[in-house]
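Self-study notes.
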Amino acid sequence: MRVDRIGTFLFAGALIAAGFWGCDGGGDGETGGGGSGTTSSTTTTTTTTTSVVSSTTTGGGTSFLGLECASDADCGTDGKCSQVTDNDPILGGGPAGGYCTKACTENAECPSGTCLTDGNGGGECFLNCAFGQPEIMFLDDPLDPTKCHGREDLRCQELASGEQVCLPTCGSDVQCDGRVCDPRLAICVDDPNVGKALGEKCDTEAMTEECAGTCIGITGGKSMCTSPCVMAGEILDTFDCGGVDKGVCLYSPSGTGAGDLGFCAESCTQHDFCQFPTFMCFNIGLPDNGVCLDTDMCNTDADCDFLDATCVETNLGKFCASAQYPLGTLEPGTGGTGGTGGTGGTMSGSGGSMGGAGGAMTGSGGSTMSGTGGSMMSGSGGSMMSSSSGM
């Protein structure tokens, strides 16, 4: 998949103020974050075009779908609680905080929701949402309580079939009651996926996912391993991306709103922690660390027109970056090797059910993303979901 740093319009100043298939669609298992564009799988010759589909319901309100729960009693008379300790066949594990759902065979059985099915025909209702709303202005914009119930551990994501649903999203093992937060699925599992860590360089054309999470391509031909997360909401006191000292939910398709699908960027305290020379450490307003962001070469400070970036001289040339962070092995004359990349990754393991090789995501507003693992639909040893209605 291919993404941009969230909201390039934010970069004039600080960023901080103070795969599933639906019942009414299906297709090839590619998911999108909204918007239009063309994506192609690396494992098939099929090319799919995904268009924006406006949701008629925003979720939240009185619906029990998507509510946090510890037992079925928390989910209404006909609901059930998918718990963190479960191996939910739709999700491939257990949702952090629990997720109220109900059995279904078609969308009509899911008021304010969408029926998602596994490969065996079993179905569960997932709460609908509106991708791109409300518009995000800063990374710590509050979450809308009428969208995915304002939960910090639910992301709004558009499916290949056009429905937009609230999906469970863990970011830390702390949320998983003795289990592990899978870096690819963002679901609590016993045997998480293994591979390259957060921030490391990866091959978006690889036939097999090489990241523990998923490999995304970034505008300009750059790439990195990352994990799904929830855009906006709480920044400092959050489990997203393993906590702010490990990563920040900052990359996203165009047109992303608060509460939507995002991707983690690695945290840093010096430049050679990042995947140099394509990434450098930037100050986005956090108290104790910066974040590794994609960068470019420069000649003067005038070439660096975002955040507090200046043209910083390194042993491999001049690059836009925040001058307040040490260069480490990148100091001119040190003969450094060009950085490590991925020092901030926090989750590893094997197994899982989303984000296998192939697939792609389409960013809203015309941003196009492609690469391995982009569909977030399948993985080794996990489940897949398909249309239950064939509509």
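Second protein, same conventions, sequence then structure:
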Amino acid sequence: MTTLAWGAVTDTGRIRDVNQDGVLSAESVFVVADGMGGHSGGEVASAIAVEKMAEKTAFNSVDELVETVRRANREVLDRALDDRALYGMGTTLVALAAMTVDDTELLCVVNVGDSRLYLRTAGQMMQLTDDHSLVEGMVRDGWITAEEAKVHPQRNVVTRALGVEEPLLVDTWELVPVAGDRYLLCSDGLTNELSDTEIEEILDETADPQEAAAALVEAACAAGGRDNVTVVVVDVVDTEPTEPDPPADRVVANHQAETVPASTDATGNGTVPASADATGNGAEQGRATEPDRTTKQGRTTEPDRTTEPDRATEPDRATEPDGTTKQGRATEPDTAAEPAEPASTELDSLSWRSFVDWSWLRTWPPSWFAALAFIVLLFAMLLMLVLSAVL
């Protein structure tokens, strides 16, 4: 079984008055959530996400992990509908969970937004997650360089977050646990202040994961601390023997969620809920669907599957309050995989292009167009009066 050691620290930073980050570090599940939306909305959204992730003591599959994230998303959306003061709140989420699937020990990662997960091995440090942000999409499409993205005026715009749309797009990775590996989960309050090289140096200088997490947060605050800073460092202390030559990035399966899964109604019939843009308005659904892209090392590709886990909650998982830390060692429980539901199809959702084209007009209600037409007509009449007076 896989044995882990970890440390977690969260800090408000030097500028903000409220810490809107959330953090969970408990035995086999580790979460960082970076809230956004108003003075208190982000704090509420990240707290909901962490609370939902803490309800289960163990996960049996990556699909079960994804479904828990999606339940957290629904809870954030529902809370915002119930309380208008929280309208527009959202949160990023990145999580690492140790589990056993079909007698194989895995570390599974889920990601939504621009919080990150890094892997530090004996040979290199690499970012495993992809940022769901406006500038990252522009970098991937070749519009700007990575260096230009760091100073882009819209570098803080995320294109995916809990509390924005339903169903939620969730990227996943399945990793081989290797003794000696170190994982870093963090909010952008760390990566906006420190370069990857600086982060790597601090991780290498400090063997204890709790001390490493504290050193990273301290360095980010010293560099400016313009945002909340949250860090979780997880070390793989021991594990069952793995294949003699595991992948350098430890990835054995990766699903990049470019499409939204169809849900089912109360009768079990398949439905495709309306998507939403960054403002929460419904987005166009008239684009063709395509199957999920799932890669499996040494195996043929297979579609993404979504399971319905047991809804019962288990309270013996503690979350980390603001400003506190937690350290411990845990052995991954031996759990059996739960059966998966049939494969689902998904369809494209929000991307950075929605910020630079006119497709967002399709989300306007008719009343907005009527108001715009009235303003244009009023302006035209005023212009005619001015011209007639002059001539």
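Instructor comment on the second fold: Helices lie at 38-53, 62-82, 134-140, 146-150, 188-191, 196-205, 209-222, 366-390.
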